[in-house]
Amino acid sequence: MLIIKNGRLIDPKNQQDKVCDLYIQNGKVISIDQAPAGFSANKTIDASGHIVIPGLIDMCAHVREPGYTQKATIASETAAAVAGGITTMITPPTTKPVVDNPAVAEMIIDRAEATGLANVIPVGALTQGLQGEQLAPMHSLSRSGCVAFSNARKSIPSALVLLRCLEYAATHDFLVIFQPQNHDLTGEGCMHDDTTCTRLGLTGIPETAETIEVARCLLLVEQTGVRAHFGQLSAERSVRMVTDARKRGLNVTADVSIHHLLLTDMNVNGFNSMFHVIPPLRSQLDRAGLRHGLVTDGIQAICSDHQPHDPAAKQAPFAATEPGISGLETLLPLGLMLVEQELLSLPQLIEKLTAAPAAILELNKGSLGIGCDADICIFNPETQWQLNSDNCVSSGHNSPFMNTPLKGKVTHTLMKGEMVYRA
Amino acid sequence: MFEITDPNNIQLNSEGQLKHFITTEGLSRELLTEIIDTADSFVDMSAQQVKKVPLLRGKTVVNLFFESSTRTLSTFELAAKRLSADVLNLNISTSSTSKGETLKDTLQTLEAMHSDMFVVRHSDSGAAHFIAEHVTPNVAVINAGDGRHAHPTQAMLDMLTIKRHKGDFSPLVVTIIGDILHSRVARSQIHALRTLGAAEIRVVAPNTLLPRNIEALGVKVFTNMESGLKDADVVIMLRLQKERMQSALLPSESEFYKLFGLTNEKLQHAKPDAVVMHPGPINRGVEIESAVADGHQSLILDQVTNGIAVRMAVMSMSMSGQMTEKNLKTEA
After folding, report:
1. B295 with B157, same domain?
2. Rounded CA gap, A27 and A249, in Å?
3. In which domain, by residue range, is A9 found?
4. Burial class (CB in 10 A: 0-12, 13-18, 19+), B28
């Protein structure tokens, strides 16, 4: 039995925002404010001056296992997740082998459970081997714990195959996640096609590489009625298309990575490979559009798009490096910058990191109402700190935010009432 | 929101002198003028009986070419030898290696041989910058062409050639014609011309061979050759790679030649005393008519001669910038 005392509880799902005590028993929240009869705590966390929120749900975090364990493992990345206050990670099917059969899905879930830190929930492949040709066994994958289906950034060239995938997913009311990317227009590109790209002489990725695919997917979503989610949008026009679709009543949602809300293509100046991400960092106009989408409900959730790498993957000329940012430990402090910039209120930010992803994924998580799992993040909003190579928990040190002043630090993370991280 | 660093600082030491030569972008007019003037003095020296100076005596220069090149490699070799350096030429084909790690590994191996300068050509944009970032202190890096990003010695030899024939840059209209999209030469020329104060810089190409928003670099864009050439003082033609036809950028060589090839007839639109340049190697009948390439307005062979002088200038200046920094550090 555990009490978290005097923290400011922000639970957007239940519209809670007040200083109170939280009573936890058998891994569940059993009472708020009033001690239940016969409750005798064997542990107390004094959360005075701290903020108590549901454990964060990260819509997109690569854990690299199985297949790429030279970069990271489920053990290393669940440890990094809880250090960042994240208790549930959704992982794309791009492991090796890909998540296109139940054994791989089960292995990922089992390994995560064995570490006992954070939940890792796989997204199943939409097509076998992500080859874009034949349907993956979605029903079996779902029974093995896959929360949604996606072809990640691998193309499904045939519109007919894509249509069939969506029809089949709709049959079972499965969520389909699109990471929209047209392969012809992306080509060998490595950054947003604009002035900085022209100056650096890199190969550009035009905005249409994303928007054409968003348009194609939206039309097929409308035809099939499937529940659909767009992951990590990068272009203002994509946000507008998704917003319009929602206005027309389509069952679509979207998320954005935290770095696309803070950075632009101009950061690539100087060929710094830490800013090499796919989709690429785009223009100031695009960033403004993404930020606007957050406050107008075009975009519901914010994710880390965590992609840990070994050092060698980033040590080469820009185009030859692998894209991606290691982002679990900076998700919350970078999100707090959006509050500092007065784009979002603190409860709005927390909603986009907890209740919103839970709603999209239909997970019974992301809230701290009575009876909910006590997956909890406690943070001090005032702590100033820096992520550096000594304190970074993730195996991937590939972050452009290394050695950058950050404000807001996780102090405790609990999974089902058990302390899994303590700063 | 997050500070954007000036990437070009990497080439200057704490005194503002050149210590690497990666790009013409961001260098001051004084520094570019110093390169031109230093090179100018070497041009005259090359015509003398004894062609060597001892500026790099005892130094080892490694020509690290990941992309094959005859002309650039040989002029760099000659330039290093005229400065009395020991020279090692390494041709490393990228196809036989997996780019990234090998570049760093290769670098470390070569550093163990205690070289003093790397002259680098690589097919990836940013490769020279990457090497300059990772090289041990006091080793100079000269960019001999990186992807589509920069070819600063080529640009500076063009500036020297223009200066020797036209004198002042300020009244000049310079027209660059051809495959701007894939051209590191054009990018480096544009930055240099702008800093040196050319009156107008024009680029002429079909939209398929123009990089996005090239206007932001300070050029006027023309898709019609005649209007782009009108009253130009300097006409620079770029090489067109044959692969461009396969990648749906152009319909055919003959259509390109018809629209964008430099013929004597089209050259009439430029000023009567206009000069014609080309970084070479030239494709006769694709981007330039033989009569123009070999004509009295052509400076193509002068460019080669000036290339050696410019390379001597930047090699000696960068080495001296490295020495200054080393001495400053020792004193401190």
Report:
1. yes
2. 38
3. 2-51+373-381+403-422
4. exposed
Query: Is B113 part of any domain?
Result: yes
Q: Which two tokens stand for residue A278?
A: 């796919």
B294 and B315 both lie in a single domain: no
Beta strands B60-65 and B117-122: pairing type? Answer: parallel
Q: Smallest CA–CA separation between B217 and chain A, in Å?
A: 8
Residues 183-202, chain A, touching B (beta carbon < 8 A): 193-195, 197-202
Residue B116 sits in the same domain as residue B222: no
Structural domains in chain A (count): 2
Indicate which residue of A100, A265, A305, A373 is catalytic.
Answer: A305
Residues A13 and A152 placed together within one structural domain of the fold: no
Same domain, A262 and A377: no
Same domain, B23 and B134: yes
Cβ-in-10-Å burial (0-12, 13-18, 19+) of A302 comes to buried
Answer yes or no: A46 catalytic.
no
Write out the residue range of the structural domain in which residue B189 sits.
152-299
Considering the domain boundaries, does residue B2 fall inside one? no
**pLDDT tens-digit profile, chain B (332 residues):** 566 556 668 999 999 999 999 999 999 999 999 999 999 999 988 777 777 899 999 999 999 999 888 889 999 999 999 999 999 998 886 545 554 456 788 888 888 888 999 999 999 999 999 999 999 889 999 999 999 999 999 999 999 999 999 999 999 999 999 999 999 999 999 999 999 999 999 999 999 999 999 999 999 999 999 999 999 999 999 999 877 777 889 999 999 999 999 999 999 999 999 999 999 889 999 999 999 999 999 999 999 999 999 999 999 999 999 999 999 888 87
**How many Cα atoms occupy the beta-carbon half-sphere of A140 within 13 Å?**
12
Separation in Å, CA of A321 to nearest CA in chain B: 7
Residues of chain B with Cβ-Cβ distance to A194 below 8 Å are 212-213
Domain count, chain B: 2
Coil, strand or helix: which one is B201? strand
Best B10, B148, B212 member to test A by mutation, with max A CBs in 10 Å, is B212
In a domain, B332, yes or no: no
CATH number for A210: 3.20.20.140
- pTM, full prediction: 0.95
Sort out which chain B residues have CB atoms less than 8 A from A197's CB and list them: 211-212
Which residues touch A238 (CB under 8 Å, ≥6 apart)? Answer: A180, A210, A211, A214, A230, A254
